[in-house]
Automatic annotation (TrEMBL):
The keyword Zinc-finger does not apply. Could possibly oxidize fatty acids using specific components. Belongs to the enoyl-CoA hydratase/isomerase family. This is Probable enoyl-CoA hydratase echA8. It catalyses: a (3S)-3-hydroxyacyl-CoA = a (2E)-enoyl-CoA + H2O; a 4-saturated-(3S)-3-hydroxyacyl-CoA = a (3E)-enoyl-CoA + H2O. It holds the Pfam family ECH_1. One of its GO terms (molecular function) is 3-hydroxyacyl-CoA dehydratase activity. InterPro entries: ClpP/crotonase-like_dom_sf (IPR029045), Enoyl-CoA_hydra/iso (IPR001753), Enoyl-CoA_hydra_C (IPR014748). Its EC number is 4.2.1.17. Keywords: Fatty acid metabolism, Lipid metabolism, Lyase. It comes from Nesterenkonia natronophila. The keyword Lyase applies.
Amino acid sequence: MTEHTTIVVSTEGRVGKIQLDRPKALNALNQTLMEEVVSAAVAFDADPDIGSILILGSDKAFAAGADIKEMAHQDYPSMYASDWFRRWEDLTELRIPIVAAVKGYALGGGCELAMMADIIVAGESAKFGQPEINLGVIPGMGGSQRLTRSVGKAKAMDMVLTGRHIGAEEAERIGLVSRVVPDEQANPVAEEVAELIAAKSKPAAQMAKEAVAASFETTLQQGIRLERRLFHSLFALADQAEGMSAFAEKRGPEWTHR
Ligand code: CAA
Protein backbone atom coordinates (compact mmCIF):
# COMPACT_ATOMS: atom_id res chain seq x y z
CA MET A 1 0.00 0.00 0.00
CA THR A 2 1.34 3.44 -0.95
CA GLU A 3 2.12 5.81 1.93
CA HIS A 4 0.23 9.09 1.71
CA THR A 5 0.72 12.26 3.74
CA THR A 6 -2.13 14.46 2.50
CA ILE A 7 -4.94 12.04 1.70
CA VAL A 8 -6.48 8.84 3.06
CA VAL A 9 -7.23 6.19 0.47
CA SER A 10 -9.58 3.26 1.00
CA THR A 11 -12.03 1.06 -0.83
CA GLU A 12 -15.61 0.18 0.05
CA GLY A 13 -16.88 -2.57 -2.21
CA ARG A 14 -16.37 -1.30 -5.77
CA VAL A 15 -15.94 2.35 -4.69
CA GLY A 16 -12.46 3.87 -4.43
CA LYS A 17 -12.40 6.60 -1.79
CA ILE A 18 -10.00 9.53 -1.59
CA GLN A 19 -10.35 11.65 1.53
CA LEU A 20 -8.47 14.96 1.42
CA ASP A 21 -6.62 15.17 4.72
CA ARG A 22 -4.94 18.50 5.45
CA PRO A 23 -7.56 19.74 7.91
CA LYS A 24 -5.32 22.39 9.51
CA ALA A 25 -4.83 24.05 6.12
CA LEU A 26 -8.51 23.56 5.15
CA ASN A 27 -7.32 20.92 2.67
CA ALA A 28 -5.33 23.47 0.67
CA LEU A 29 -4.15 21.73 -2.48
CA ASN A 30 -0.37 21.66 -2.39
CA GLN A 31 1.82 19.89 -4.94
CA THR A 32 2.12 16.75 -2.78
CA LEU A 33 -1.66 16.50 -2.43
CA MET A 34 -2.10 16.99 -6.16
CA GLU A 35 0.31 14.17 -6.91
CA GLU A 36 -1.23 11.88 -4.29
CA VAL A 37 -4.84 12.48 -5.38
CA VAL A 38 -4.10 12.04 -9.06
CA SER A 39 -1.92 8.93 -8.55
CA ALA A 40 -4.56 7.29 -6.34
CA ALA A 41 -7.30 8.11 -8.83
CA VAL A 42 -5.25 6.80 -11.78
CA ALA A 43 -4.72 3.53 -9.87
CA PHE A 44 -8.46 3.22 -9.13
CA ASP A 45 -9.26 3.93 -12.79
CA ALA A 46 -7.07 1.02 -13.85
CA ASP A 47 -8.45 -1.38 -11.23
CA PRO A 48 -11.11 -3.71 -12.69
CA ASP A 49 -12.60 -4.17 -9.22
CA ILE A 50 -13.34 -0.44 -8.85
CA GLY A 51 -16.34 1.12 -10.59
CA SER A 52 -16.35 4.70 -9.27
CA ILE A 53 -14.27 7.15 -7.27
CA LEU A 54 -15.53 9.20 -4.33
CA ILE A 55 -13.64 12.35 -3.29
CA LEU A 56 -14.36 13.64 0.21
CA GLY A 57 -13.22 16.70 2.16
CA SER A 58 -13.73 17.61 5.80
CA ASP A 59 -16.74 19.23 7.50
CA LYS A 60 -15.28 22.74 7.34
CA ALA A 61 -13.72 22.55 3.90
CA PHE A 62 -13.79 20.39 0.83
CA ALA A 63 -10.71 22.42 -0.10
CA ALA A 64 -9.99 26.14 0.37
CA GLY A 65 -7.98 26.35 -2.84
CA ALA A 66 -4.49 25.85 -4.10
CA ASP A 67 -1.90 26.26 -1.35
CA ILE A 68 -1.26 30.02 -1.29
CA LYS A 69 1.75 29.69 1.01
CA GLU A 70 3.39 27.28 -1.43
CA MET A 71 2.67 29.54 -4.42
CA ALA A 72 3.52 32.87 -2.79
CA HIS A 73 7.26 32.66 -3.54
CA GLN A 74 7.04 31.23 -7.02
CA ASP A 75 7.98 33.29 -10.02
CA TYR A 76 7.15 33.05 -13.70
CA PRO A 77 10.12 30.80 -14.68
CA SER A 78 9.36 28.31 -11.90
CA MET A 79 5.61 28.24 -12.64
CA TYR A 80 6.21 27.82 -16.35
CA ALA A 81 9.01 25.26 -16.04
CA SER A 82 6.98 23.02 -13.74
CA ASP A 83 3.75 23.70 -15.67
CA TRP A 84 2.13 24.27 -12.26
CA PHE A 85 -1.27 22.50 -11.91
CA ARG A 86 -0.85 20.47 -15.14
CA ARG A 87 -0.99 17.17 -13.27
CA TRP A 88 -4.62 17.88 -12.34
CA GLU A 89 -5.53 17.46 -15.99
CA ASP A 90 -4.69 13.76 -15.68
CA LEU A 91 -7.67 13.47 -13.32
CA THR A 92 -9.96 14.79 -16.02
CA GLU A 93 -8.67 12.18 -18.48
CA LEU A 94 -9.88 9.28 -16.36
CA ARG A 95 -12.73 7.17 -17.71
CA ILE A 96 -14.14 6.07 -14.36
CA PRO A 97 -17.02 8.19 -12.96
CA ILE A 98 -16.03 10.50 -10.09
CA VAL A 99 -18.37 11.74 -7.34
CA ALA A 100 -17.43 14.56 -4.94
CA ALA A 101 -19.05 15.31 -1.58
CA VAL A 102 -18.66 18.99 -0.71
CA LYS A 103 -19.19 20.51 2.74
CA GLY A 104 -17.89 23.94 3.74
CA TYR A 105 -15.44 25.80 1.55
CA ALA A 106 -14.82 24.77 -2.06
CA LEU A 107 -12.84 27.80 -3.15
CA GLY A 108 -10.42 28.42 -5.99
CA GLY A 109 -8.73 25.10 -6.73
CA GLY A 110 -11.25 23.45 -4.36
CA CYS A 111 -14.13 24.55 -6.56
CA GLU A 112 -12.10 23.56 -9.62
CA LEU A 113 -11.35 20.10 -8.19
CA ALA A 114 -15.04 19.60 -7.39
CA MET A 115 -15.86 20.55 -10.98
CA MET A 116 -13.47 17.83 -12.22
CA ALA A 117 -15.87 15.34 -10.63
CA ASP A 118 -18.83 14.12 -12.68
CA ILE A 119 -21.35 14.51 -9.87
CA ILE A 120 -21.18 16.93 -6.92
CA VAL A 121 -23.29 16.23 -3.84
CA ALA A 122 -23.27 19.36 -1.68
CA GLY A 123 -24.05 19.70 1.99
CA GLU A 124 -26.06 22.78 2.95
CA SER A 125 -22.91 24.44 4.33
CA ALA A 126 -21.10 24.26 0.99
CA LYS A 127 -19.64 27.53 -0.26
CA PHE A 128 -18.28 27.67 -3.79
CA GLY A 129 -16.15 30.47 -5.15
CA GLN A 130 -13.29 31.52 -7.41
CA PRO A 131 -11.65 34.15 -5.16
CA GLU A 132 -8.29 34.20 -6.99
CA ILE A 133 -8.96 37.78 -8.13
CA ASN A 134 -8.51 38.84 -4.49
CA LEU A 135 -4.96 37.45 -4.62
CA GLY A 136 -4.12 39.32 -7.80
CA VAL A 137 -4.41 36.21 -9.97
CA ILE A 138 -7.10 34.23 -11.80
CA PRO A 139 -8.31 30.61 -11.64
CA GLY A 140 -5.56 28.25 -12.82
CA MET A 141 -7.03 24.75 -12.56
CA GLY A 142 -9.72 25.17 -15.21
CA GLY A 143 -12.16 27.39 -13.31
CA SER A 144 -12.66 30.02 -16.00
CA GLN A 145 -13.46 27.28 -18.53
CA ARG A 146 -15.31 24.58 -16.56
CA LEU A 147 -17.35 27.02 -14.50
CA THR A 148 -18.45 28.88 -17.62
CA ARG A 149 -19.42 25.70 -19.42
CA SER A 150 -21.23 24.50 -16.34
CA VAL A 151 -23.16 27.63 -15.27
CA GLY A 152 -22.89 30.02 -18.24
CA LYS A 153 -21.21 33.39 -18.72
CA ALA A 154 -23.40 35.49 -16.42
CA LYS A 155 -22.71 33.52 -13.25
CA ALA A 156 -19.12 32.61 -14.16
CA MET A 157 -18.18 36.25 -14.77
CA ASP A 158 -19.92 37.23 -11.53
CA MET A 159 -17.97 34.65 -9.53
CA VAL A 160 -14.58 35.04 -11.24
CA LEU A 161 -14.57 38.85 -11.33
CA THR A 162 -16.00 39.54 -7.87
CA GLY A 163 -14.62 36.50 -6.05
CA ARG A 164 -17.88 36.16 -4.15
CA HIS A 165 -18.84 32.85 -2.57
CA ILE A 166 -22.14 31.23 -3.46
CA GLY A 167 -24.07 28.94 -1.15
CA ALA A 168 -25.28 25.41 -1.83
CA GLU A 169 -28.79 26.50 -2.77
CA GLU A 170 -27.56 28.94 -5.42
CA ALA A 171 -25.03 26.38 -6.63
CA GLU A 172 -27.84 23.90 -7.22
CA ARG A 173 -30.08 26.52 -8.86
CA ILE A 174 -27.39 27.46 -11.39
CA GLY A 175 -26.47 23.86 -12.16
CA LEU A 176 -23.08 23.69 -10.47
CA VAL A 177 -24.04 20.78 -8.20
CA SER A 178 -26.25 17.75 -8.73
CA ARG A 179 -27.89 17.59 -5.29
CA VAL A 180 -28.01 19.49 -2.00
CA VAL A 181 -28.61 17.57 1.21
CA PRO A 182 -28.25 18.33 4.94
CA ASP A 183 -24.57 18.36 5.87
CA GLU A 184 -24.64 15.12 7.80
CA GLN A 185 -26.10 13.43 4.71
CA ALA A 186 -23.53 14.73 2.23
CA ASN A 187 -20.95 11.96 2.60
CA PRO A 188 -23.48 9.10 2.93
CA VAL A 189 -25.54 10.30 -0.06
CA ALA A 190 -22.41 10.81 -2.18
CA GLU A 191 -21.30 7.33 -1.17
CA GLU A 192 -24.69 5.89 -2.14
CA VAL A 193 -24.44 7.60 -5.52
CA ALA A 194 -20.90 6.27 -6.00
CA GLU A 195 -22.04 2.76 -5.00
CA LEU A 196 -25.01 2.91 -7.37
CA ILE A 197 -22.72 3.85 -10.26
CA ALA A 198 -20.12 1.25 -9.29
CA ALA A 199 -22.85 -1.40 -9.38
CA LYS A 200 -23.54 -0.70 -13.08
CA SER A 201 -21.71 -2.28 -15.98
CA LYS A 202 -18.30 -0.54 -15.83
CA PRO A 203 -17.83 -0.14 -19.60
CA ALA A 204 -21.39 1.20 -19.96
CA ALA A 205 -20.83 3.71 -17.14
CA GLN A 206 -17.50 4.76 -18.64
CA MET A 207 -19.03 5.28 -22.06
CA ALA A 208 -21.97 7.17 -20.56
CA LYS A 209 -19.44 9.51 -18.90
CA GLU A 210 -17.47 9.84 -22.13
CA ALA A 211 -20.60 10.72 -24.10
CA VAL A 212 -21.84 13.37 -21.68
CA ALA A 213 -18.33 14.83 -21.26
CA ALA A 214 -17.97 15.07 -25.05
CA SER A 215 -20.86 17.55 -25.16
CA PHE A 216 -18.48 20.12 -23.61
CA GLU A 217 -15.95 19.62 -26.38
CA THR A 218 -17.76 19.03 -29.66
CA THR A 219 -20.48 20.34 -31.93
CA LEU A 220 -23.94 18.86 -31.43
CA GLN A 221 -23.65 16.82 -34.61
CA GLN A 222 -20.22 15.39 -33.69
CA GLY A 223 -21.45 14.63 -30.18
CA ILE A 224 -24.53 12.83 -31.40
CA ARG A 225 -22.45 10.80 -33.83
CA LEU A 226 -20.02 9.87 -31.05
CA GLU A 227 -22.94 8.86 -28.83
CA ARG A 228 -24.37 6.64 -31.55
CA ARG A 229 -20.98 4.98 -32.19
CA LEU A 230 -20.51 4.34 -28.47
CA PHE A 231 -24.08 2.99 -28.29
CA HIS A 232 -23.37 0.62 -31.17
CA SER A 233 -20.06 -0.49 -29.63
CA LEU A 234 -21.76 -1.54 -26.41
CA PHE A 235 -23.42 -4.33 -28.43
CA ALA A 236 -20.00 -5.99 -28.59
CA LEU A 237 -20.07 -6.52 -24.83
CA ALA A 238 -21.45 -9.38 -22.75
CA ASP A 239 -23.03 -6.83 -20.39
CA GLN A 240 -25.42 -5.61 -23.11
CA ALA A 241 -26.64 -9.16 -23.74
CA GLU A 242 -26.90 -9.77 -19.99
CA GLY A 243 -28.72 -6.49 -19.29
CA MET A 244 -31.32 -7.07 -21.95
CA SER A 245 -31.79 -10.78 -21.12
CA ALA A 246 -32.18 -9.94 -17.45
CA PHE A 247 -34.88 -7.40 -18.31
CA ALA A 248 -36.78 -9.95 -20.44
CA GLU A 249 -36.42 -12.61 -17.71
CA LYS A 250 -37.57 -10.15 -15.01
CA ARG A 251 -34.41 -10.57 -12.88
CA GLY A 252 -31.54 -8.33 -11.87
CA PRO A 253 -28.52 -8.26 -14.21
CA GLU A 254 -25.24 -9.90 -13.25
CA TRP A 255 -22.58 -7.74 -14.82
CA THR A 256 -19.22 -9.17 -15.77
CA HIS A 257 -18.02 -5.65 -16.71
CA ARG A 258 -16.99 -6.95 -20.09
N1 CAA B 1 -3.69 27.99 1.02
C1 CAA B 1 -2.92 27.83 2.11
N2 CAA B 1 -3.39 27.86 3.37
C2 CAA B 1 -4.71 28.07 3.52
C3 CAA B 1 -5.57 28.25 2.43
C4 CAA B 1 -5.01 28.19 1.12
N3 CAA B 1 -5.76 28.31 0.01
N4 CAA B 1 -6.82 28.46 2.90
C5 CAA B 1 -6.75 28.41 4.25
N5 CAA B 1 -5.47 28.16 4.61
C6 CAA B 1 -4.95 28.04 5.98
C7 CAA B 1 -4.88 29.38 6.66
O1 CAA B 1 -3.71 30.07 6.29
C8 CAA B 1 -4.88 28.96 8.11
O2 CAA B 1 -3.59 28.49 8.44
P1 CAA B 1 -2.89 28.98 9.82
O3 CAA B 1 -3.75 28.41 10.90
O4 CAA B 1 -1.54 28.36 9.75
O5 CAA B 1 -2.90 30.48 9.78
C9 CAA B 1 -5.82 27.74 8.11
O6 CAA B 1 -5.86 27.29 6.77
C10 CAA B 1 -7.22 28.11 8.53
O7 CAA B 1 -7.68 29.17 7.69
P2 CAA B 1 -8.30 30.54 8.27
O8 CAA B 1 -7.73 30.84 9.62
O9 CAA B 1 -8.15 31.57 7.21
O10 CAA B 1 -9.84 30.10 8.43
P3 CAA B 1 -11.11 31.04 8.39
O11 CAA B 1 -12.24 30.18 8.82
O12 CAA B 1 -10.86 32.32 9.10
O13 CAA B 1 -11.29 31.41 6.82
C11 CAA B 1 -11.38 30.93 4.47
C12 CAA B 1 -11.59 30.41 5.89
C13 CAA B 1 -12.40 32.05 4.13
C14 CAA B 1 -11.56 29.77 3.51
C15 CAA B 1 -9.95 31.52 4.34
O14 CAA B 1 -9.04 30.56 4.84
C16 CAA B 1 -9.54 31.85 2.93
O15 CAA B 1 -9.95 32.87 2.39
N6 CAA B 1 -8.69 31.00 2.32
C17 CAA B 1 -8.17 31.24 0.99
C18 CAA B 1 -9.19 31.03 -0.09
C19 CAA B 1 -8.59 31.32 -1.44
O16 CAA B 1 -8.20 32.44 -1.74
N7 CAA B 1 -8.51 30.29 -2.31
C20 CAA B 1 -7.95 30.42 -3.62
C21 CAA B 1 -6.51 30.00 -3.60
S1 CAA B 1 -5.66 30.33 -5.14
C22 CAA B 1 -6.14 29.08 -6.15
O17 CAA B 1 -6.86 28.19 -5.77
C23 CAA B 1 -5.61 29.12 -7.56
C24 CAA B 1 -6.26 28.15 -8.48
O18 CAA B 1 -7.03 28.52 -9.32
C25 CAA B 1 -5.96 26.73 -8.42
